[in-house]
Fold this protein.
Amino acid sequence: MRRRLVAATAATVGALGLGGWTFATPLPYPIVSRALGLVPMRVVHTQQRVVGVVVESNAPATPVLARAAAHRGLHASFALDKAPAPTLIVRLRRLGDEVVPRLAPEKPTRLLSARRQLLLEARALRLKGGFYYLAPKGFTLADYVAARSVGGHPFAGAVRYTAGQPPARDDDLRPGAIVVLALNSASPSAVAVVDRLATLLHGLGLRPVPLSALVSSARSTATTA
Protein backbone atom coordinates (compact mmCIF):
# COMPACT_ATOMS: atom_id res chain seq x y z
CA MET A 1 0.00 0.00 0.00
CA ARG A 2 2.79 2.36 0.97
CA ARG A 3 4.67 1.61 -2.25
CA ARG A 4 1.57 2.36 -4.35
CA LEU A 5 1.07 5.64 -2.49
CA VAL A 6 4.69 6.66 -3.05
CA ALA A 7 4.46 5.78 -6.74
CA ALA A 8 1.23 7.72 -7.19
CA THR A 9 2.65 10.74 -5.40
CA ALA A 10 5.78 10.68 -7.53
CA ALA A 11 3.72 10.48 -10.71
CA THR A 12 1.58 13.41 -9.62
CA VAL A 13 4.58 15.55 -8.72
CA GLY A 14 6.23 14.64 -12.00
CA ALA A 15 3.16 15.60 -14.00
CA LEU A 16 2.88 18.92 -12.19
CA GLY A 17 6.55 19.57 -12.71
CA LEU A 18 6.29 18.77 -16.40
CA GLY A 19 3.25 21.01 -16.72
CA GLY A 20 4.99 23.92 -15.02
CA TRP A 21 8.11 23.39 -17.10
CA THR A 22 6.02 23.25 -20.26
CA PHE A 23 4.53 26.66 -19.57
CA ALA A 24 7.77 28.29 -18.45
CA THR A 25 10.43 26.77 -20.69
CA PRO A 26 12.06 29.08 -23.25
CA LEU A 27 13.34 26.08 -25.23
CA PRO A 28 12.63 26.29 -28.97
CA TYR A 29 9.53 24.34 -29.87
CA PRO A 30 11.19 22.07 -32.50
CA ILE A 31 13.58 20.62 -29.91
CA VAL A 32 10.81 19.51 -27.56
CA SER A 33 8.28 18.68 -30.27
CA ARG A 34 10.39 15.79 -31.52
CA ALA A 35 10.03 14.07 -28.15
CA LEU A 36 6.33 14.85 -27.79
CA GLY A 37 5.33 14.20 -31.39
CA LEU A 38 4.03 17.74 -31.91
CA VAL A 39 4.97 19.43 -35.18
CA PRO A 40 3.56 22.42 -37.08
CA MET A 41 1.60 21.49 -40.17
CA ARG A 42 3.74 21.92 -43.28
CA VAL A 43 2.03 19.58 -45.73
CA VAL A 44 -1.48 18.18 -46.08
CA HIS A 45 -2.28 14.93 -47.85
CA THR A 46 -4.47 15.70 -50.84
CA GLN A 47 -5.18 14.11 -54.20
CA GLN A 48 -5.57 17.53 -55.81
CA ARG A 49 -2.66 19.35 -57.43
CA VAL A 50 -2.83 22.35 -55.12
CA VAL A 51 -0.40 24.12 -52.81
CA GLY A 52 -1.23 26.50 -50.00
CA VAL A 53 0.33 29.94 -50.41
CA VAL A 54 0.81 32.12 -47.33
CA VAL A 55 2.17 35.66 -47.56
CA GLU A 56 3.80 36.85 -44.35
CA SER A 57 3.49 40.61 -44.53
CA ASN A 58 2.14 43.78 -42.92
CA ALA A 59 -1.04 45.77 -43.52
CA PRO A 60 0.47 48.62 -45.63
CA ALA A 61 2.10 46.24 -48.12
CA THR A 62 -0.78 43.78 -48.34
CA PRO A 63 -3.06 45.55 -50.91
CA VAL A 64 -0.24 45.89 -53.44
CA LEU A 65 0.93 42.30 -52.98
CA ALA A 66 -2.65 40.99 -53.16
CA ARG A 67 -3.32 42.80 -56.44
CA ALA A 68 -0.05 41.53 -57.89
CA ALA A 69 -0.92 37.98 -56.87
CA ALA A 70 -4.47 38.19 -58.24
CA HIS A 71 -3.16 39.55 -61.55
CA ARG A 72 -1.09 36.37 -61.88
CA GLY A 73 -3.90 34.02 -60.84
CA LEU A 74 -2.42 33.40 -57.42
CA HIS A 75 -4.70 33.32 -54.37
CA ALA A 76 -3.22 33.28 -50.90
CA SER A 77 -3.62 33.58 -47.16
CA PHE A 78 -2.08 36.73 -45.68
CA ALA A 79 -0.47 36.28 -42.29
CA LEU A 80 -0.24 39.80 -40.90
CA ASP A 81 1.66 41.16 -37.92
CA LYS A 82 -1.59 42.30 -36.27
CA ALA A 83 -5.34 42.04 -36.78
CA PRO A 84 -6.23 43.95 -39.98
CA ALA A 85 -8.92 46.56 -40.40
CA PRO A 86 -12.31 45.21 -41.58
CA THR A 87 -11.95 47.11 -44.87
CA LEU A 88 -8.73 45.25 -45.68
CA ILE A 89 -10.36 41.90 -44.92
CA VAL A 90 -13.19 42.75 -47.33
CA ARG A 91 -10.74 43.79 -50.07
CA LEU A 92 -8.81 40.56 -49.75
CA ARG A 93 -11.92 38.41 -49.86
CA ARG A 94 -13.01 40.11 -53.07
CA LEU A 95 -9.71 39.04 -54.60
CA GLY A 96 -10.18 35.45 -53.43
CA ASP A 97 -7.72 35.78 -50.56
CA GLU A 98 -8.02 35.46 -46.79
CA VAL A 99 -6.27 36.47 -43.57
CA VAL A 100 -4.82 34.00 -41.07
CA PRO A 101 -3.42 34.78 -37.59
CA ARG A 102 0.30 35.11 -37.18
CA LEU A 103 2.11 34.76 -33.88
CA ALA A 104 4.70 37.54 -33.80
CA PRO A 105 8.05 36.65 -32.19
CA GLU A 106 8.64 38.51 -28.94
CA LYS A 107 10.27 37.57 -25.66
CA PRO A 108 10.97 33.89 -24.84
CA THR A 109 8.66 33.85 -21.81
CA ARG A 110 5.48 35.47 -23.04
CA LEU A 111 2.77 32.97 -22.30
CA LEU A 112 0.01 35.49 -21.57
CA SER A 113 0.92 37.92 -24.37
CA ALA A 114 0.99 35.13 -26.97
CA ARG A 115 -2.41 33.89 -25.83
CA ARG A 116 -3.87 37.41 -25.82
CA GLN A 117 -2.49 38.22 -29.26
CA LEU A 118 -3.96 35.15 -30.94
CA LEU A 119 -7.25 35.54 -29.10
CA LEU A 120 -7.64 39.12 -30.35
CA GLU A 121 -6.75 38.14 -33.91
CA ALA A 122 -9.14 35.18 -33.88
CA ARG A 123 -11.96 37.44 -32.70
CA ALA A 124 -11.18 40.09 -35.33
CA LEU A 125 -11.25 37.42 -38.05
CA ARG A 126 -14.35 35.80 -36.52
CA LEU A 127 -12.64 32.45 -36.19
CA LYS A 128 -14.53 29.98 -34.05
CA GLY A 129 -13.27 26.72 -32.63
CA GLY A 130 -9.92 25.49 -33.91
CA PHE A 131 -7.90 27.61 -36.32
CA TYR A 132 -4.45 27.60 -37.89
CA TYR A 133 -1.83 30.28 -37.29
CA LEU A 134 1.62 30.92 -38.71
CA ALA A 135 4.25 30.01 -36.13
CA PRO A 136 7.31 32.28 -35.83
CA LYS A 137 10.91 31.15 -36.19
CA GLY A 138 11.64 31.51 -32.48
CA PHE A 139 8.69 29.31 -31.55
CA THR A 140 8.77 27.93 -28.00
CA LEU A 141 6.80 25.22 -26.27
CA ALA A 142 5.21 27.90 -24.08
CA ASP A 143 3.96 29.59 -27.27
CA TYR A 144 2.43 26.32 -28.40
CA VAL A 145 0.64 25.77 -25.11
CA ALA A 146 -0.64 29.36 -25.00
CA ALA A 147 -1.96 29.22 -28.55
CA ARG A 148 -3.48 25.78 -28.07
CA SER A 149 -5.46 27.06 -25.09
CA VAL A 150 -7.43 29.36 -27.42
CA GLY A 151 -7.83 26.78 -30.20
CA GLY A 152 -4.74 27.60 -32.25
CA HIS A 153 -2.88 25.00 -34.32
CA PRO A 154 0.55 25.96 -35.73
CA PHE A 155 1.62 25.70 -39.33
CA ALA A 156 4.86 26.58 -41.09
CA GLY A 157 6.20 26.53 -44.60
CA ALA A 158 7.46 23.37 -46.25
CA VAL A 159 9.05 25.93 -48.57
CA ARG A 160 9.91 29.50 -47.58
CA TYR A 161 11.02 32.37 -49.82
CA THR A 162 12.00 35.97 -49.15
CA ALA A 163 12.44 39.04 -51.34
CA GLY A 164 16.16 38.31 -51.44
CA GLN A 165 15.59 34.66 -52.33
CA PRO A 166 13.48 34.30 -55.49
CA PRO A 167 11.61 30.98 -55.81
CA ALA A 168 13.49 28.27 -57.66
CA ARG A 169 12.68 24.68 -58.55
CA ASP A 170 12.39 22.82 -55.26
CA ASP A 171 11.60 19.16 -54.55
CA ASP A 172 9.33 20.29 -51.70
CA LEU A 173 7.07 22.09 -54.18
CA ARG A 174 4.60 19.26 -54.50
CA PRO A 175 0.83 18.83 -54.04
CA GLY A 176 -0.24 19.62 -50.50
CA ALA A 177 2.81 21.71 -49.56
CA ILE A 178 2.53 25.03 -47.74
CA VAL A 179 4.60 27.80 -49.34
CA VAL A 180 5.40 30.87 -47.23
CA LEU A 181 6.49 34.14 -48.82
CA ALA A 182 8.11 36.45 -46.26
CA LEU A 183 7.50 39.86 -47.86
CA ASN A 184 7.40 42.80 -45.48
CA SER A 185 7.17 45.45 -48.19
CA ALA A 186 5.58 46.06 -51.58
CA SER A 187 8.93 46.73 -53.23
CA PRO A 188 9.62 45.63 -56.83
CA SER A 189 11.74 42.75 -55.50
CA ALA A 190 8.83 41.54 -53.36
CA VAL A 191 6.40 41.69 -56.30
CA ALA A 192 8.99 39.84 -58.38
CA VAL A 193 8.91 36.97 -55.88
CA VAL A 194 5.13 36.68 -56.31
CA ASP A 195 5.54 36.73 -60.10
CA ARG A 196 8.28 34.10 -60.03
CA LEU A 197 6.29 31.78 -57.77
CA ALA A 198 3.21 32.00 -59.99
CA THR A 199 5.32 31.13 -63.04
CA LEU A 200 7.04 28.26 -61.25
CA LEU A 201 3.80 26.72 -59.97
CA HIS A 202 2.17 27.03 -63.38
CA GLY A 203 5.09 25.16 -64.94
CA LEU A 204 4.71 22.39 -62.36
CA GLY A 205 0.97 22.14 -62.90
CA LEU A 206 0.23 23.20 -59.33
CA ARG A 207 -2.64 25.54 -58.41
CA PRO A 208 -1.97 28.12 -55.65
CA VAL A 209 -4.79 28.40 -53.12
CA PRO A 210 -5.31 29.92 -49.64
CA LEU A 211 -4.60 27.73 -46.63
CA SER A 212 -8.28 27.04 -45.91
CA ALA A 213 -8.79 25.72 -49.43
CA LEU A 214 -5.73 23.49 -49.08
CA VAL A 215 -7.02 22.03 -45.82
CA SER A 216 -10.49 21.53 -47.31
CA SER A 217 -9.01 19.62 -50.24
CA ALA A 218 -7.63 17.05 -47.83
CA ARG A 219 -10.80 16.42 -45.80
CA SER A 220 -12.20 13.95 -48.31
CA THR A 221 -8.92 12.12 -48.79
CA ALA A 222 -6.68 11.82 -45.74
CA THR A 223 -5.94 13.33 -42.38
CA THR A 224 -3.91 16.55 -42.38
CA ALA A 225 -0.31 16.43 -41.32
Observations:
- The first strand starts at residue 50 and ends at 57.
